Amino acid sequence: MAIKKSQLYNTLWEACNALRGGMDASQYKDYVLVVLFLKYISDKAKSDPNTLISVPKGCSFYDVAKHINQKTVNETMNSSLEKIAEENGLEGVINTVDFADEQKLGKSDEMIRTVSQLLKVFQNESLDFSNNRAADDDLIGDAYEYLMRKFASQSGKSKGQFYTPAEVSRVMANVVGINKDNRKSNISIYDPTCGSGSLLLRAKAEAKRDNVSLDGQEKDLATIGMAKMSMIIHGVETACLEHGDTLNNPLHKDDEKTLHQFDYIVANPPFSMKSWMKTAKAEDVFGRWGTAEGLAPVPPNGCGDYAFLLHIVASLRSDGHAACILPHGVLFRGNDEATIREWLVRRHLISGIIGLPPNLFYGTGIPACIIVIDKKNALESKGIFMIDAKEGFAKDGDKNRLREMDIRRIEDAWNDHQDIPHFARFVPYEEIQDSKNNFNLNLPRYIAPEDSEIQQDITAHLHGNIPAYDVDEVFSHYWEVCPSLKSQLFSKLNKEYYKFKKSEASEIKKIIDANADFQHHSALYRQSVADFFESKNTEMKKLPLGFNPKEKIEQWGNALLEQAEKQQLVNPYEVYEILLSFWAETMQDDCYLISRDGWNITVGTDKKKPTYKDILCDLVPVDVVVNEYFAAEESAIANQEATIEEINSQITEMEEENPQELGDSVSVIKSKLETASLPLPFENEEQVLLEFLPLLAIKGKEGKTKQNAYIAKFKEIFDQFDKLNKAAVTKRIKQIPLLSENVDEETKTLYEKYVELQDKLSEEKDSLKELMTEMYQKVKTKYDSLTEKDIRHLVVDCKWRGTLTARTDTLLTDVCQKMTTDMIALRDRYAHTLPDIENRVNDLRAKVNASLESMGITL
Question: Out of 266-270, 458-462, 712-716, which region has the weakest mean confidence (pLDDT)?
Fold first, then answer.
């Protein structure tokens, strides 16, 4: 059975647990990724004779695994990596970590145990990477990126910069237009600060073609090793990645004075690098900057942002496109950087600027932007298209993250190149160059943020009523969709003021819910979602073996967004987000299983005595089967469970209300027993001591025997009451005749009622057990009888459509709640006039004065 993506991720993350004690994430990532790489190339060598990576005899993962828990495991791992590196030109890539490092892995047995535990994780039968792709959808490659993201998030400040968040990479790959390049010839993509290679790989994925070459350079030795392993795991063995300082020693060049140029460049350089100019000179030999006419001004040595951007410009072909992530400061900082910015703008090299939310990147929390360079259309360019996307994100732990809806909104705005209020705008060069802006590219100068400031109406605060500005202007977007709603909520007093017809919150909500326009648009919204499913139902149910899940979700997402845009009530991007979130949560795994195994299911359980709820089936979970075929039976079980819960509540209530009679106080029961009528050697607690003390004087075996017998007898009679249950209370009832005359009928009735409830509880539990047993057999039998047609129906109609329909319906509730909340906030803003407040103060003052006078105090 194929492993799900989520299971693969979880399994691989377990590998990290074996190493977390001795080192931080920036170190243990290297060990985990190297073992993952070794397992991958070993599996590929077994299944693909044409693989470009050679695994010498005796050096595969399986050869190393034979040494698990043996003293030879550490050195065997090291020697195997050395031989693989030597044979494949991977020196300094996979043999940089020492699996015999006592400082990091522990000494002797601890080191053997740590490395062995790591290897054992990858012995999992489901982690067979010999056939990891589903129609070129790279399962293990995605897992490698998942691990790098996890490592980056835990590596701390400055140690997580090797990884650019996948969401940002996707935006960059889209805006440079790789996906629109239809040329038949080979295209080249370059990243001068490639880190772990994630940007390059994302750009290649967007190209959706094979004839793509990847080139990159990275200064950090460990990071370039990660990038090279990532390329191989993603099937890009021919990528040319160099180790070195790009600014001072660029290695992708045609000769000693000419940089090699590329079709596309994507980059996320280190922000504001200080003292970057080492061997590089102010008069750059590659012509990236200098004082000669036509060259860009020299970037300041104290901040390397523009040095990287100018390197990108120089490395770009005359018809090339680039996208570079830089801190927001490059848009407005002065001095030398202002001069460089002017140089870039005057040459029309910057085609776009996308402002991103803060705290997206690992290692820094400062806000950043994407600078888009377009040499191809520079001569025809009339301005710069700007997008201010700083508000679109979700919190993800201690970082922010672009949601699917945020990514799609940026991409749609960029592709449409149309102005969107408060979000996107095409700014002509004349405006950028005028005396007011003077080549300052700070986004707030050109894109006005939404006005969130509340205008206060003094007259309304003094005399009440609702200002017309708030009703007509602030909430105009509501009346555009539901024009009849305004007149149902408000009465117009004059040109300047309204008043609420009904001011109670519940009444306002009822009016909105019942409004004809709101109902009409709600129906249109629900129909748009239904139309999406109807249009895709047949396609979803006929998903074949080997289909590409990523292509499908892209198509389905586009189709749902297109349908959602036909209605006006709900933000279409929020509908899109629901689909893509459910994809990441559930549908993605389902599609991978279908792509690799077809519409087949495996049913099982991990419990020794399972109930129907414990039945496990990845593609068709038990709750889907139960909801579709056994809703009545499940309802009966729920009712039975509710009955049991009610009886338990009654028992608990009796115990809490009668702590002495039904509690676990031995002393209370003991005080009521007439010991003379019982076969006990004592009458009260004092006699217990008096009888027991002489026994302590008897030494030897005989004394010990008598002492133990005495103690056992004592425990037999009284310790039974320490645990409250039916048996204990029943025994008490039998002893009621032996209790003192003070025991009344009420106490006896209490005991009998308690036992009666316990008997009832046992009966109901037996009934529940019987229902659960029957249900288990029914569900198990149903699973065994499911046809492929049934499975397709359960997955598509019940699991996917049922869940998504329910979730998209919540957006309607959110809209109604938002409208209600806004109306109530407006009502409350002017609910208390100044005269009302003054009268209230006067009333309170009079009451206080009266109270003071009654106490003889005169103000």
Answer: 712-716
The encoded tokens of residue 237 equal 């063995």
> In degrees rounded to 5, what are phi and psi of residue 551?
-65, -40
The sheet with strand 497-500 has its strands ordered as 466-467, 497-500, 490-492
Name the residue ranges covered by the structural domains of the chain.
Answer: 1-155, 162-449, 463-501+504-601+790-830
**27 and 104 in contact (C-beta within 8 Å)?**
yes
**For 556-613, how does the pLDDT look when each residue is reduced to its tens digit (9 = 90+)?**
999 999 999 999 999 999 999 999 999 999 999 899 889 988 999 999 988 888 999 9
Architecture per CATH, 1-155 = Up-down Bundle (1.20)
pLDDT tens digits, one per residue of 72-123: 999 999 999 999 999 988 888 888 889 998 888 888 888 898 889 889 888 8
* Residue 627 CB neighbours (<10 A): 15
What is the Cα gyration radius of the chain?
37
Tens-digit pLDDT profile for residues 482-501: 999 999 999 999 999 999 99
Side chain identity at residue 710, one-letter code: Y
CA 502 to chain centroid: 42
User: Where do runs of H (alpha helix) occur along 631-699?
Assistant: 631-657, 659-662, 666-672, 685-697
Contact 605, 729 (CB under 8 A): no
Contact 264, 322 (CB under 8 A): yes
Residue 531 half-sphere exposure toward CB, CA atoms < 13 A = 15
The per-residue pLDDT for range 16-25, each reduced to its tens digit, is 666 666 566 5
What is the pLDDT at residue 132? Answer: 52
Task: Please list the helix, strand and coil fractions of the chain in percent, rounded to the nearest 5, in that order.
Answer: 55, 10, 35
Distance CA 343, CA 854 (A): 83
Q: What is the pTM of this model?
A: 0.82
Compute the distance between CA of residue 645 and CA of residue 643 in angstroms, rounded to an integer: 5
Q: Is 826 buried (19+), middle (13-18) or exposed (0-12) by CB count in 10 A?
A: buried
User: Residue 414 and residue 172: Cα distance in Å, rounded?
Assistant: 11
Beta strands 258-259 and 316-327 are unpaired
Interacting residues of 807 by C-beta distance below 8 A, sequence separation 6+ = 578, 582
Q: Does domain 162-449 have CATH number 3.40.50.2300?
A: no
